[in-house]
Write a structure and sequence with these properties.
Helix 14 packs across helix 18. The protein is α/β, with parallel strands linked by helices and 496 residues long. The chain folds into four domains: 41 residues; 182 residues, Rossmann fold; 71 residues, Helicase, Ruva Protein, domain 3 (Orthogonal Bundle), CATH 1.10.8; 172 residues, Peptidase M41 (Methane Monooxygenase Hydroxylase, Chain G, domain 1, Up-down Bundle), CATH 1.20.58.760. The structure holds adenosine-5'-triphosphate.
Length: 496
């Protein structure tokens, strides 16, 4: 098409030249028109408004089943139950049930919301059209709304072309366009959201193609209530971080295609990756394979997986050169954390490391055993003691502390606040809004200093473990959990 136009323009110029018409102004005008056309057709991101505008319709019906999503049993069941409305049209019509128009998936990043939407399209044999809230944001009023209209039209057209009865429109980061309207934001956002609501209101069971909008967010609290009301996104499904069983499942899914050594214990990796999302677990599997390749080993070992967990948790090793004095201090600090962690939660220390990663110069990797959602006062106090133990060890060995404990103190303060607000402090059950800030601060300080005293006492009793650990960390940089426990056991024997 483009070639044809260029050819026609060139022929016209030749003809005009032959007639003696001055060509320069015409050439300039033509160039300007060409530039404007080019930029308007290529601008606008995934949902551009020019001729080349496309919606990200990379797959017609995605080839992904719910079985390929690890964990999320409850979320998957809820979603499948909702999707059955789309599949069993006749039943739904016979009972006069209004069609399901929107499903909202909410949860932290990387937990598999996009995967769920794709599996939903596969399950319902629907074409899948995906986009993100940010694709609708433009400086010019009306552009976002136009893109929304186009999104719905293209989804319908695509379903007809592929001879499908259903289409699923997936909008990631819905909070970008669906945030609460309080009059303070750009008018453009309002118009885009209004258009989305209008399109959703227009969906009906009589249409030849049934559309279902699946949206994802990790800020459900930010969404405008108009989006969440019945008849719009009225099915809310929470997609949580995976628990240990789910992490094992996800790791199996991502490791089963890779060459694994017989020593690999996936359960152990699942235990050590508390708090990881599905995306982070996928990254652990991938990084472990890269480490194996670098070592020119045929199989991925437990050691490669352990390195991969560190990388995903703490970031890549950095070249920060610490002085000998800093290295000694960091080693003592981390040993302090490890000693108290092992007393609070036996068998929980996976490794102590003295190597710079991300922002840290050293770190202790320990796991909480079983996943927990509720904590008693003793458990929170234990967590605070682990946090205070780094600086306490510095105090015991060097007689002073460093700025390295800043982040520990921040988290210890948050935990003290949690104790107070949960009615687990000496203040009893309180409403924090009705109490003087200074009283809250005094109670937090009291909690922290009494726990610090206990922590210092515990560290003093294990001074020789600190020193032995210091020697090993300076020599090898890493002290594995089992080796560390041997040191503690030997020390206990000497004491006896
Ligand atoms: P975001 O909110 O950041 O868009 P998301 O919740 O949509 O994230 P996905 O894009 O679905 O997350 O997941 C990213 C990748 O993480 C997937 O491609 C997959 O490799 C992996 N993953 C996440 N959750 C799971 C899971 N439950 N089972 C298997 N793999 C998962």
């Amino acid at each position: 098409m483009m070639g044809w136009i260029v050819g026609a323009v060139a022929a016209t110029f030749l003809f005009l030249g032959y007639l003696g018409v001055p060509l320069l102004p015409l050439v300039v005008l033509t160039l300007i028109i060409a530039a404007v056309t080019f930029f308007s057709s290529t601008s606008g991101g995934r949902l551009g408004v020019g001729k080349k505008e496309t919606i990200q319709t990379n797959e017609s019906v995605p080839n992904l089943t719910f079985d390929e999503i690890g964990g999320q049993k409850r979320a998957k069941n809820e979603l499948i139950e909702a999707l059955d409305f789309l599949i069993h049209r006749d039943h739904i019509d016979a009972y006069g049930i209004r069609p399901l128009k929107g499903i909202l998936l909410s949860g932290p990043p990387g937990t598999g919301k996009t995967l769920m939407a794709k599996a939903a399209a596969h399950y319902t044999d629907s074409v899948f059209v995906s986009t993100a809230g940010s694709a609708f944001i433009e400086m010019y009023v009306g552009v976002g709304a136009k893109r929304i209209r186009k999104l719905f039209t293209e989804a319908r057209e695509m379903a007809r072309k592929k001879k499908k009865k259903n289409a699923i429109i997936f909008i990631d980061e819905i909070d970008v366009i669906g945030g609460r309207r309080d009059g303070s934001q750009h008018r453009e956002y309002d118009q885009t959201l209004n258009q989305l609501l209008t399109e959703m209101d227009g969906l009906s069971s009589e249409q030849d193609v049934r559309l279902l909008v699946v949206a994802a967010t990790n800020r459900k609290d930010m969404l405008d209530s108009a989006l969440l009301r019945p008849g719009r996104f009225d099915r809310h499904i929470t997609v949580d971080l995976p628990d240990k069983k789910a992490r094992t499942h996800i790791l199996h899914l991502h490791l089963h295609t890779k060459p694994l050594s017989a020593d690999v214990k996936i359960e152990k990796i699942a235990e050590e990756t508390f708090g990881f999302s599905g995306a982070q677990l996928e990254s652990v599997a991938n990084e472990a394979a890269i480490y194996a390749l670098r070592d020119e080993e045929r199989e991925i070992t437990q050691h490669h997986l352990s390195l991969a967990i560190d990388k995903v948790m703490m970031g890549e090793k950095t070249d920060r050169e610490a002085t000998q004095e800093e290295r000694e201090r960091v080693a003592i600090h981390e040993m302090g954390h490890a000693i108290v962690a092992e007393f609070v939660q036996p068998e929980s220390v996976a490794q102590v490391a003295l190597s710079p990663r991300g922002e840290a110069l050293g770190y202790v990797r320990h796991h909480p055993g079983s996943d927990r959602y509720l904590y008693t006062r003793e458990q929170i106090e234990g967590q605070i003691m682990i946090l205070l133990a780094g600086a306490a060890a510095e105090q015991v060995v060097f007689g002073n502390r460093s700025t390295g404990a800043r982040n520990d103190y921040e988290r210890a303060n948050q935990s003290a606040q949690l104790l107070i607000e949960s009615g687990l402090s000496e203040l009893g059950i309180i409403n924090p809004d009705w109490i003087e800030k200074s009283s809250l601060q005094a109670e937090a300080s009291r909690i922290l200093s009494s726990l610090e005293e206990r922590t210092i006492h515990q560290i003093e009793q294990h001074r020789h473990v600190l020193e032995r650990g210091l020697y090993l960390l300076l020599k090898d940089e890493v002290l594995q959990g089992d080796h560390f426990r041997q040191l503690l056991a030997q020390a206990d024997e000497w004491v006896r």
